Write a sequence for this structure.
């Protein structure tokens, strides 16, 4: 905290820019942790910026600065590397699912088109919040917890909206005699 306070005091002058919350050694350490965590070279700067942002958000939120900024930054970088791998695996699984959908033979292209149109109509008829969680969960493949965090709502609300949306969409598809 003292380091951030000193940096903040130095930046209080008339034309001084806000100082970087990470010094050069800490930035090198963050890059090393990200690289060793498997993050590609092209994404390292984004990872470093994420660590900076989280440190600045922490200070802006009035929370006390970590006792050891260097260690804290390394842990955050390690978590970011794990997140990067999870996102990569999620994208790969989504790609595999899409590829398998393309490979399955459907009785006719007309049946597939009817189903697609019915689903699109059903989505259009859902209230915005229900459509949003349904799309995030099943099309973007986000977990319930991730949706709740991103939207700033409780997990229970996400689950409730998903349940209601799926039930309404299912009823619509049965009503249209598509499924």
């Amino acid at each position: 905290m003292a380091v951030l306070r000193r940096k903040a005091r130095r930046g209080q002058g008339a034309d001084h820019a806000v100082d970087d919350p990470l010094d050069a050694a800490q930035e090198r350490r963050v890059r090393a942790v990200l690289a060793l965590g498997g993050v590609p070279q092209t994404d390292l700067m984004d990872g470093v910026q994420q660590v900076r942002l989280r440190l600045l958000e922490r200070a802006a939120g009035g929370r006390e600065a970590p006792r050891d900024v260097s260690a804290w930054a390394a842990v955050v970088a390690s978590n970011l590397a794990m997140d990067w791998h999870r996102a990569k695996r999620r994208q790969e699984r989504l790609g595999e699912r899409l590829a398998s959908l393309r490979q399955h033979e459907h009785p006719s292209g007309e049946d597939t088109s009817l189903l697609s149109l019915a689903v699109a109509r059903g989505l259009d008829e859902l209230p915005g919040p229900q459509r949003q969680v349904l799309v995030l969960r099943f099309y973007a493949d986000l977990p319930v917890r991730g949706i709740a965090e991103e939207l700033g709502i409780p997990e229970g609300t996400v689950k409730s909206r998903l349940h209601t949306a799926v039930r309404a969409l299912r009823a619509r598809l049965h009503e249209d005699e598509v499924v």
Q: What stands out?
A: Residues 1-17 have pLDDT under 50 and may be disordered.
